[in-house]
């Protein structure tokens, strides 16, 4: 999406950010080993410099990315924040086939950032959940060769000790026939592929990265005992050998530990690549449940409790920093609502990243610039609603309406309310363009906030696409000015 509009506000923001970088902010400290995922599948991604400052303000020193966008990665330069970069699944075939493409990738997306005081890149995740069942095996034969080629390139660049090559896998790569962790093993149809990868991780001393989602256990099974998804009750226990399990996270992670043991890797390091709770798009996805989940989980992390057969501290990346309104909703409408923070960097619920369990709000994004205070709604003059449903469907096919369903934040609207919500989502996604608020004359722009109760009618932020352009303009202005002083 090309964006050329640059507002004066955006230019001021650049100057503000430059100031913020100079003026060092000291924030809270989070639990050691705590990181966070930042995905960029949003129509208006947050400016990476704002994100870097926000992580520092919250004392979070690790970030996991899903690609290696140069502008994003370079924003972490000099921050000391550990960065995991990723290679998207659709690029695996290229790197599986060609070691020179892998070398180019490492040069352009890793080595370039590593000059003294540069970016602290620690991991490369080759693929993202490439063995996921719903991919029907499309990436199974590509992942390992791609890992090998990226590793060769890393070795060639002399980075073997500093940067670990791995792949973030979903917990669906293993299972237990009895639901007891000790019966854990890798899925039949990928067991040999997993063996190659385990051997590789062992030789390179790289961690096994696994994404674990207690929310999905609850979502996928009506009979799943809800409390077992959280960490604060003993209402249900699974006994397994001498171990007692009173939450599904422990049971799931130990199923992996058993699967690794069976494959001969007793002490392979495990990193939790994604874990979190969504806040909308499903009746169990709300801020109260998310708060409860994180509170229990972070306390457990801070206490270095670990799991029954893997006690101790853990390295964990929460999922996720922000909501992403362009994520596929094939897995469910909750997919666009995983953020601990909203799309604009505002906190949704209290969360104590130090794990002390205090009722406190995290540090929000600073310096976010919003678009104008304008919304698009169903025009008050429309009395005949017969043409509304098709317009509503059109808006929802092209913008995010996942807050409208049963049990969601906007589930109490009538047809007119639904239409207004949908029209506004469409309008905001399209940068409030006047043409995006027409719908055959059904819609009109208003300046009074239509939000009601839990149902938020958002105003989008100035996207970081604008920021790139603005940064370039400021830079060329500065260069121009200095040329002026040099030549005069
Ligand atoms: C570097 O990473 C970016 C973002 O993932 C990608 O678009 C680009 O193709 C990569 N560069 C190379 C040389 O592969
Ligand atoms: C996997 O197979 C299912 C059922 O045949 C199909 O609906 C789906 O689109 C396939 N997914 C991919 C990524 O190929
Ligand atoms: C509402 O509009 C539709 C389509 O223009 C029309 O067919 C219908 O008769 C109208 N209903 C009323 C009550 O005016
Ligand atoms: C509003 O939209 C939601 C989600 O599509 C739907 O379930 C609900 O029935 C709609 N309400 C009305 C009054 O049309």
UniProtKB/TrEMBL annotation:
Please verify whether the record's keywords include Nucleus: no
Q: What class of enzyme is it?
A: hydrolase
Q: Which reaction does it catalyse?
A: Hydrolysis of (1->3)-beta-D-glucosidic linkages in (1->3)-beta-D-glucans
Q: Which SUPFAM superfamilies match?
A: (Trans)glycosidases
EC number(s) from the headed UniProt entry: 3.2.1.39
Q: Which GO terms describe its cellular component?
A: plasma membrane; side of membrane
Q: Which residues form a coiled coil?
A: none
Per its record, how is this protein called by name? glucan endo-1,3-beta-D-glucosidase
Phylogenetic placement of the source organism: Eukaryota, Viridiplantae, Streptophyta, Embryophyta, Tracheophyta
